[in-house]
Amino acid sequence: MKPLSEILEEVRGRIAAAAKRAGRDPAEVEIIAVTKTHGEDVVREARDAGLRIVGENKVQEAAWKKAAAVGGMDWHLIGHLQSNKVRPALEIFDFIHSVDSVKLADRINLIADAIGAQPHILLEVNVSGEKSKNGMKPEDVAPTVEHICRDCPRVTVEGLMTMAPFSENPEDARPYFRRLREVRDATEAALGVKLPRLSMGMSGDYEVAVEEGATWVRLGTVLFGERPKVKAVRAAVGETDGDGGATGGLDSYSGAGPTVRILD
């Protein structure tokens, strides 16, 4: 595999070309290095290559990885956030991309007030309507933004996030990315607010996402190759998930993680 610096140069070139096709400034687009299931060495590699944002799907994985990695990186939660993990999430992450309900926003505001945090969030929107995906309905975005602005003084909502349905053809993602931008634009117009962030596009479709307005693209495989295979192992005695349950399963990943190991 090529050195990350070379890969990153190619990816940034593709982002710049996509931005130019859309009449955008490439500087408007930032890369989130998705390091899930990789170890802290990959976080260091990303930082050394000039990346400054780490994206993680799991609170517990990020907890040990951030402690073992290096400074100088912002940490973003891009995976689903359970209400019982709001407190550790606010302690670990600089940004949460996956707020998908008023109830969760209220919970974040409550915990943020208790610990003195001022979280920045995105609302996750299920623009495809797939039952397998998290996220609120597009029509729920404006009322949720209005609620947060009125009733969640600790929380700053800065935009929207989505995932397009998987397809081998990047063009298949275009209507979903366009729809998210349209929802953002309509919400801004209706409420008189600014929602500058659009988190959309992954390794297979990030160029289309940039053409449709993405400001953050979440890239893992294209930068670091295929993710390591993982296998669940028994949780350590006394280790719980915050609700009294064992932490076994896939809540934490990779070599140094407490509950799984990389398969040979």
Write out key terms for the chains shown.
single chain; 2 domains; about 260 residues; TIM Barrel; about 15% strand; disordered C terminus; alpha/beta; eight-stranded parallel sheet; two-stranded antiparallel ribbon; globular
Global morphology: globular
What are the segments in which pLDDT stays under 50 over at least 5 consecutive residues? 231-264
Helical proportion, percent range: 25-40%
- Rg, please? 18 Å
The average pLDDT score comes to: 88
Element order, helices and strands? HEHEHEHEHEHEHEHEHEE
Q: State the CATH architecture of the largest domain.
A: Alpha-Beta Barrel
The CATH H-level superfamily of the largest domain is Alanine racemase
The number of helical runs is: 9
Indicate the proportion of strand residues: 15-25%
CATH topology of the largest domain: TIM Barrel
What's the number of structural domains?
2
> How many beta strands in the DSSP annotation?
10
Largest sheet: 8 strands, parallel
Note down, in words, how this protein is organized.
The protein is α/β, with parallel strands linked by helices and 264 residues long. It has two domains: 4-226, TIM Barrel (Alpha-Beta Barrel), CATH 3.20.20; 228-264, no CATH class. 37% of the residues lie in helices and 16% in strands. The strands form two sheets. It has an eight-stranded parallel β-sheet with strand order 7-6-5-4-3-2-1-8. Helix 6 (141-151) crosses helix 7.
